[in-house]
Design brief:
Oligomer: single chain
Number of domains: 1
Helix content: 55-70%
Order of helices and strands: HHHHHEEH
Mean pLDDT: 89
Strand order of the largest sheet: 1-2
Length: 123
């Protein structure tokens, strides 16, 4: 039998884990991705450049974080047409109540899979 995910095991041993730690664990994201999400909560509509400046990270790292957060449905991207021509992408966070609902759904799906696996076990 394999050991449980060390992060999940650590999280379960904490009596009152912080929301950000639970967010990381449930969605399998890293601290830098979590920081990007929380920066967007403070600065919705930011561009990659603005986030990179705010987080003191390079644009390519911020782009990777945004891609991961988008896959997890924690952010949305909108295209803004610039007055002088061209466009820029702006990023918006999933509001906390919606993120919490996503977390519940994710944990419920995982629990269902675990229960199904337990029931399928036949020695």
């Amino acid at each position: 039998m394999t050991d449980p995910d060390p992060e999940l095991d650590e999280l379960m041993r904490i009596d009152d884990p912080e929301f950000d730690r639970v967010l990381e664990c449930v969605f399998g994201i890293h601290a830098h991705e979590r920081r990007t999400y929380f920066a967007l909560l403070e600065l919705p509509g930011s561009t990659v450049t603005e986030l990179a400046d705010e987080l003191d990270r390079d644009r390519s790292s911020v782009n990777r974080s945004l891609s991961t957060l988008s896959e997890k449905k924690l952010i949305e991207r909108d295209r803004k047409i610039l007055d002088g021509g061209g466009y820029v992408y702006q990023y918006f966070p999933t509001p906390i109540p919606d993120a919490k609902a996503l977390m519940h759904d994710t944990v419920d799906r995982w629990a269902t899979q675990v229960h199904e696996r337990i029931e399928s076990f036949d020695p």
